[in-house]
From TrEMBL, chains A, B:
Domain of life from the UniProt record: Bacteria
Protein name: Alpha/beta hydrolase
Recorded family membership: Belongs to the esterase D family.
Cross-referenced Pfam families: Esterase
Species in which this protein is naturally found: Winogradskyella ouciana
InterPro entries with a match to the protein in the record: AB_hydrolase_fold (IPR029058), Esterase-like (IPR000801), Siderophore_Hydrolase_D (IPR052558)
GO molecular function: hydrolase activity, acting on ester bonds
Stretches that traverse the bilayer: 22-43
UniProt keywords, alphabetically: Hydrolase, Membrane, Transmembrane, Transmembrane helix
Length: 291, 291
């Protein structure tokens, strides 16, 4: 005979076993699902390549969080070396892949920081004109964000050398020109592919250049590479080309050998010539060899 | 009182509970490990891009399995369209990324088939000479593999148009030249960046050309783009450059307008000029527009 106490305990234990069995079935199903998920992720037939890792920082100046993708050189972890940094405007996946491929082909080692856009017109444009209207041009704020927030953040977190390169294309190429004139000490190398401005922006950039070139020393040792195409569908009247021809004369007469400067036009290369980024990175790397 | 039978049953059930608890602990640890693994794989901060999917086929001709990475156009699944195919020799990740970026920039839609090497010298070289010694040159076998095995496999499995392009660089660029002369009907477009041969291979290619150019019609509508660099460290005496200058004269006099042919040299671009693949793809795409 089972006494009342033991009977209750037995029943309770029996219920426990049933509950445990149910839980185990659920866990079993979960385990199988998880294993399928893992095998799907790890053993899929897809071929993927890692192009970097996510990073971000909150900018007080812009009052928003800015997303980054950072690519470290392959041997970053294995070495104790410090690396130059390439700041990539319009930091899309394709631009980052482009930059990685260019660095790979030129055998250059860079930490690449791709900066995703939030409000591109606001950040890239220092002005608004009928040729390109921008509601709220705030390039000076974006430049402060780079100098006061992003660069210190990157240089604290990663092993960086003191060499900084910025690259923009099209609208962000115009920003690179603005940054070169407004804060030449911030980067060592400025690459603007499909940079330049329309005719109605000429006065603004003339004034900015005049002011900037008064302090020649701040440009000492800087490198500037700008490029565009004579068949740019966004520049049908070759106004951007003309702005850069004029600027080339101006910078040569004002700064002479103070800066390494190259303006390259491509005959039939559409908007943002494919080879221009490679040629720009080659130009700045040759500069390093000279030193 | 508990009778003997019930006592045994109780004890057995108690042991069962203990065993189940141990098993559950193990499962718990497994679950946590799996969750960590999954979160690491799926929610890591890594940024990856899919560049294609794995494929492979067994080649009776080469008596080995050949690995491929195939990239389908973004809208492949959504459309019922057939696409041209770009066969990429030296099918490394970087060459595939390069090809994808070039296609993206030129707004070209291709199925890209990257063919991984097994024995590169054997497959790419039709001959062995003191300038480049190959133990067992079997380019004719590799060409048969392409024509009789790979292309039928790809054209059965994927929605392909009839337009086929082959691209090689350096040693595989030499193979592209060989393929153009040995089997001009196999591809519509041949791109050899850093193609050409050393002086001691000249006789072989002269004989191959003489034989090939007897049947002018087999070259009808073909496009050939070859490129190299005047500063190629692997061609210090410019023998490869000279071979292509001579070949250019020969093909123009033998075939005239029968083929679209371009030979481009780059001044200071090292081995395999960065822009050459883009320029080659641009050249073949302009050919399509002409038609």
């Amino acid at each position: 005979m089972i006494d009342y106490y033991d009977d209750r305990r037995y029943l309770a234990d029996a219920k426990k076993i049933i509950r445990i069995k149910v839980v185990m079935k659920i866990i079993g199903v979960l385990l199988v699902s998880l294993l399928m998920l893992v095998s799907n992720v790890a053993y899929s037939q897809d071929v993927t390549v890692k192009i970097g890792h996510k990073d971000s920082l909150y900018s007080s100046i812009l009052d928003e969080t800015r997303n980054l993708v950072v690519t470290l050189p392959d041997d970053y972890e294995a070495t104790g070396k410090s690396y130059p940094v390439l700041y990539l405007l319009d930091g899309t996946e394709n631009n980052l892949i482009d930059a990685r491929l260019v660095a790979y082909n030129l055998k250059l080692e860079f930490i690449i920081v791709a900066i995703a856009n939030t409000n591109r017109d606001r950040d890239m444009m220092p002005l608004s004109r009928p040729s390109y209207k921008v509601e709220n041009p705030q390039a000076h704020h974006f430049l402060s964000f780079l100098g006061e927030e992003l660069i210190p953040y990157i240089e604290t977190k990663y092993r960086t050398s003191e060499e900084r390169t910025i690259r923009g294309r099209s609208l962000s190429g115009l920003f690179v020109m603005y940054a070169f004139l407004a804060k030449p000490e911030l980067f060592n190398n400025y690459i603007g592919t499909c940079a330049g401005w329309f005719a109605d922006m000429g006065d603004y950039f003339t004034e900015l250049s005049n002011k900037a070139f008064k302090d020649k020393n701040s440009f000492n040792g800087r490198t500037l590479f700008v490029a565009n195409s004579l068949s740019d569908p966004l520049d049908p009247k070759q106004e951007i080309h003309q702005s850069l021809v004029d600027f080339s004369k101006k910078i040569k007469s004002a700064l002479g050998d103070q800066v390494r400067f190259k303006y390259k036009t491509y005959e039939n290369a559409g908007h943002v010539p494919f080879a221009a980024f490679y040629d720009g990175m080659k130009f700045i790397s040759e500069s390093e060899k000279d030193e």
